Amino acid sequence: MRPHTRSEKELFEKNANLQNSAPIQSRKPIAKKRQKGNALQWWILAGVGIVSFACLSIIGYLLFQQTAFPPSAPTPLPVTATLPAVTSTPAYAPIFEPGECQFKKPEEAQVTCGYVKVPEDRNGNLGDTIQLAVAIYHSVSNSPKPDPTLFLYGTPDGQAISLSLSIFDTVIAPIIEERDFIAFDTRGTGRSIPAMVCDNILTTFQSDLNGELPVDQKAAYYQGAFATCKSNFNLMGITPSAYTSPNMAADARDVIRALGYQQANLYGVGYGTRIAQFVMREYPEIVRSAALDSVVPLDSQMLRVDISGEQNRLIGQLFAECAADPACSSAFPNLEGVYNEGIAILDAQPYPASAKIKSFDVFATYYSHDLDGAVFRDAVLWNMNDAQTRSDVPNFIYRVYNGDFSNVFNGVLPQFFMFQGWVEVGAYVATHCHDQVFANPIERLDATIFELCGMWDIAPPAEGENEALHSAIPTLILAGRYDTRTPAIFAHQLAERLTHEYLVEFPYGGYALTFNYYSYYENCPPIILASFLREPNAPPDMACMNGSNPIPFNVSQPPVSTSNLEPVMIQEYNLLAFVPSHWESGGIGQFIHHPGWVPQIHIQRSQMSEAEWVEKLRADFLDGQGFDQPAEKVGDRQTAHLAWTLYRAASQGNPVDMAFAKHGSDTLMILLITQNSYHAHDYNQIFLPNVNELVPLD
Questions:
Q1: Exposed, middle or buried by CB within 10 Å (0-12, 13-18, 19+), for 348?
Q2: β partners of residue 654
Q3: Is 123 exposed, middle or buried, given 0-12, 13-18 or 19+ CB atoms closer than 10 A?
Q4: With 225 labelled, which of 259, 288, 441, 537 sits at a CA distance of 20 to 30 A?
C-alpha cells in the first residue's frame, strides 16, 4: 500500500576556511580529458543537487575552467571490480565504551555518550580499530520499546550528534516517548576518531575561488594538496579506501550490536538514506522499519544523472504558480521572461562580488566570485528549497532584473562554503571518490578527478554495490515537490522497488523535511515520522496535512523605509536623530528595519577626522566587509546647524551614502545602506532629513 502525499525545505550548509597550498613541481601535469561545454556547470549542479558532492564538483570546476593541460595517460581504476564482500557475520565483537558527553545536553534528556570500536578496514587487519562517537537519548517511558531509532545523517556531509541537538525538540522528543534515539558520527567525521581533517585541500580551494592560483599551475596545486593530505593520513595510520558507504552501513549494524539491541528503526536524511539502504539490503535482520527523508537511491549516481532538467521543471512550476496567483502575476508579470533576461544580463556582464565569511576562530575568510547567469540560477534554486524564501523568489528575480544584485551572492554562499566547521573534507573526498567518481566511466568525467582520487588509493565500487534496493521492510519515504537537491522523482524511483512503503510527498516542501518545515507545516513531517515509527505496518497518520494550501507569494516590497520619521534621542552621543517609527535599534546609533535586512541607518560621533572615518568604513564596515571600492565625495551641504560633506560608496552591491560634519573636536557621521531598487526613496526620505535636521544637544 502506498499513500501519496507531500513534504518541506532544505538544511544548513556551512562555510569553508581556506588559504593556499604549494604545488608539486616534479609530478607530470594532470590531463584535462576534454571540455564538454556546459558539462562542468552540470557537474557543479549535480554536486549542489545533494550537498555531499559539491567539494569534488567545485574543485573540478575550478581546476578546469579556462585551463588547458597537455595530455597524459592516466590509468584510472576500473569502474567495476569484484571485491570481497563485507561479511554479515564479522569475526570480531564491536565494543561500546562509555564516555563524557562533550556537548551541553538538553535539560529534558537523559543522554549516554561514548565510542563504539570497529575495524577500520573490514577486509584487512581487524585489530586496527577506529572509534565511532555515539550519543544515546534514552526513552522517558517506564517500559520503552526494545527497538531504538538510529539516526543516519551524511556520508559525510554533516555531524549527526551535533545536528541531533538542534532537532531534539521537534524530532527526538516525540520519539523518546516510546523508544531510545541513537545518533552517531560516521567514520572520519565529527567526534569520531580519527577525524579525516584535510586542510590543504581547503586552503587550495579557497585560493582557487579567489583567483589566486596561476592558471597554468592549478593542477599542480591540487596535486600538492592531495599528496600532502595522503602523507598526513599515512602518518596517522588512516586508510582512505576504508571510508565508504558500505562500511558505514556495517558501522551502523555494529553500533546496534554493541549497544545490546537486536533490531532498530532506521531514520536517514539526505545522503544518510543511502547508508540506510545498504543496511536494509545487507543486514535486513536488524531492521524493524526505515524512515527515509529526501532520498538518494543506491542506483542514482549524482555525477551521472543530469538533474538540471528536473530543476528547470521546478522553476517552471514556480512560474506557473505565480501566473495563476492574481496578486503575484499582477506584481510580477511575465516572471519567466524577466528571469531569462536576468540570466542574460549577468551572462553578458558578470557582476564582481566578494563576501566575508566569519570563521569559528578569530580570523575571517574573504571570497570573491563573479556573479553570472549560472550563479543567479543557483541562487533561485537554493531559495526554492525553503517555503519561506520561495515565497520571495519572484521578488528576488525582479530585483536582479532591475539591477539589484545585492542578494545573489548571499543566495549561493552555502553551496560554495559549507565545509568550515561542519564537514571533514578528508572523509568527504574519500567517500565520494569511491561512491560516485569511480562509479562512472572515465569518458563521462574529466580524467583529472579520477587521477586525484587515485592518489589516495581509493577503490572502486564492488560489483553490484550500486544496484537498486528491493525490500519488503516497512519504509516511510518523505519527499518535497520543491526539493532541488534530492528531487521527488528519486523518492518515486525507490518506492517502485519496495513492497511495503508509504510515500508522502509534500506539495510545497523542499529538502530535509523533518528538519526544515518551519511554521508552514507546523510539526507535520515529524508527526508523520513518529506515527510511522509507532506502527510501521499501518499507514501513518497524515491528518496534519489536511488543508495545506499554497504558500502565498510575497508581493509586498522588500523591507523599505517610510517617510514617517520620529525623533530619537541617542544619549550615548548626545544627538537627536530621526528614524522611521517602525524601525528598531540595532545597537548604539544604529537603526534597522528588521534584523539582517537593509536598509539601515547609522548615526555616530567620534574624535576621528573625516578622512579617518572614511578609511575606517572602507576597511571595516559591516564587520569587515568594507566597501566594494573607495568612497567617492559627491558634494557638500550646509544646514542650519552644520556643514556636511557627502560621500557615496557600495558594499556588496548595496549603495551606501555618508555625511560627515565637524562639531567641536568631534566628527558626526550619518550612514545609510539600502538596496538599489529603493535607493532614491530612502536617500530622500531618510538620509537627507537626518542631514538637514540632526541636532547635537551640546
A1: exposed
A2: 651
A3: middle
A4: 441
Q: How many domains does the chain have?
A: 1
Q: Considering only CA atoms, which of 21, 398, 458 is closest in space to residue 213?
A: 21
How far apart, in Å, are the Cα atoms of 124 and each of 95, 171, 238?
Answer: 18, 38, 13
Strand pairing category for 111-119 and 643-651: unpaired
CATH number at residue 612: 3.40.1000.10
pLDDT 10s digits, 617-672 = 988 887 777 888 899 998 888 776 788 999 999 988 889 999 999 988 899 999 99
pLDDT given for residue 595 in this prediction: 65
Question: Does residue 673 fall inside a structural domain?
Answer: yes
Residue pair 415/50 in contact by the 8 Å Cβ criterion: no
Helix (H, G, I), strand (E, B) or coil at 351: strand
* Burial 668-684, CB ≥16 within 10 A → b, else e: bbbbbbbbbbbbebbbe
Taking only the tens place, the pLDDT of each residue in 351-380 is 876 655 433 343 445 566 778 898 899 889
Give the integer Cα–Cα distance in Å for 644 and 636.
6
Predicted local distance difference test score (pLDDT) of residue 135? 98
Nearest to 238 by CA among 144, 318, 131, 152: 131
pLDDT digits (tens, 9 = 90+) for 110-147: 999 999 999 999 988 899 999 999 999 999 999 999 99
| Torsion-angle region of 527 (φ positive above 0: left; ψ -120 to 50: alpha; else: beta) | alpha
Residue 592 lies in a domain: yes
**pLDDT score, position 289:** 99
442 or 315: which leads in pLDDT = 315
Q: Is residue 538 in a domain?
A: no
Q: Which residues constitute the domain of residue 648? A: 565-696
Q: Which helix (H) or strand (E) holds 205?
A: helix 199-209
Pairing of strands 149-153, 129-137: unpaired
